[in-house]
Amino acid sequence: MKKESTFPLIAKTISGLEDALVLELEALGATGAMKLNRAVSFTGDTEMMYKANYACRTALRILKPLFHFEILEQKDLYEKIYEFPWEDYLDAEHSLAIDAVISYTVFTNSQFVAQKSKDAIVDRLRDKLGTRPSVDLEHPDLKVNVHLFKDACTVALDSSGQSLHRRGYRKSTGPAPINEVLAAGLIKLSGWDANTPLFDPMCGSGTLLIEAAMLAKNMPAGYFREEWGFMKWRDFDADLWEKVRADANALTTALKVKIHGSDRAERAIESARENLRFTNLYEDITLEVKSFEDSQPPFEKGFIISNPPYDERLEIEDSLAFYKMIGDTMKRKFAGYTAWMISSDLESVKFIGLRPSRRIPVFNGPLECRFLKFDLFAGRKGYQDVID
Ligand SMILES: C[S@@+](CC[C@H](N)C(=O)[O-])C[C@H]1O[C@@H](n2cnc3c(N)ncnc32)[C@H](O)[C@@H]1O
To answer: What is the pLDDT of residue 1?
Structure first.
């Protein structure tokens, strides 16, 4: 692979986190960051690509586009991908995986696009090298991303490999853990200043707590991760990668802010404990088995950021009563706090009975959610019992 000084890159993210990702990439030194749909395009060199992979909290993967072409008929896909000199990137004993994403194209099935693209690369290598590479979906040597939008096809290398939400710290989970990238994104969207004490009263396995602590400590998002796709590329620069890691790690500080998590399920708190032990945050973050309705504010004033149950993975017997309980508890006990909750249950959240001062649309997997802000004033001033 030849090295260019700078080249175009694309960071993929979750719908609703694009603006946060633009800011993160710019802070890391990316130029020309431009918001797209569930992605941000930018320009950088290899160092920037490594940095984005190591430090970005709101990116799911970092793609390095190789070539673009127009698809007028289905056969163009195979032919154009076959024409590319894949032998410069892959040996016959290497393994390969294809991710295909399609919208509004002549193809209707992304699996078919992945299959055709794989055939083109494999046939090319067999014709040029005499043998064909194998397919390994979990740990391929090269992961190729094929993106089709209308008649435009972009073929890119996936420099991340496995999705960056796999931070490497989650040793134990509950039944409905929040995606780490979404958790980090919510914390950024909330405007938490990393100095105000933070409480997650339905913390499950502790993802929001850990992401908040890592953010407050300036600890790189990839600190606990061991593998990235680019490490298997022919042009992998191990010295540069070590420098990127060492530079980023050197900026990590001790945790100065108080962070507390509770959950009514003992099992969930056990999972959170295990994850905190692994991340060495066990001394810094306090945990408690407690129902929200029975909890007392852990700090005089602070931020609540929480991911209450709302989807099919966690059944709530009476979701209206459940959300009413959340609202009543916040009103009665958490005056002076700023609270943020994510939920897809847009009917039930009305029963919180407080008018949200912000409603940010965001997706949790396939679920369209709102991330809602409630300003909990002291006394009843400012409260309106709203169900609209
Ligand atoms: C969607 S999960 C949170 C997942 C968490 N963000 C994570 O990443 O693991 C919701 C959590 O709320 C907890 N929960 C449900 N009802 C509760 C209540 N009344 N008080 C406190 N926790 C509750 C559940 O035990 C569950 O762990």
So the answer is: 52
**Do residues 122 and 189 share a domain?**
no
CB 369 less than 6 A from any atom of ligand 1: no
Say yes or no to pLDDT of 382 above 80: no
What is the domain-level CATH number for residue 268?
3.40.50.150
43 in the same domain as 154: yes
Alpha helices (H) in the chain, listed in sequence order: 18-28, 46-55, 75-83, 110-129, 180-190, 207-216, 238-249, 266-279, 319-333
Q: Are residues 303 and 367 in the same domain?
A: yes
CATH number of the domain that residue 122 is part of: 3.30.2130.30
Choosing from 171, 264, 288 the residue with most ligand 1 atoms within 8 A of its CB, the one to mutate for a pocket test is 264
> 0.85 exceeded by the pTM?
yes
Protein residue with its CA nearest to atom 8 in ligand 1: 177
**Ligand 1 touching residue 289 (CB < 6 A):** no
Q: Is 267 in the pocket of ligand 1 (CB under 6 A)?
A: no
Which residue from 105, 83, 64, 46 is spatially nearest to 243, judged by alpha carbons? 46
Q: Domain range for residue 310?
A: 180-218+253-375
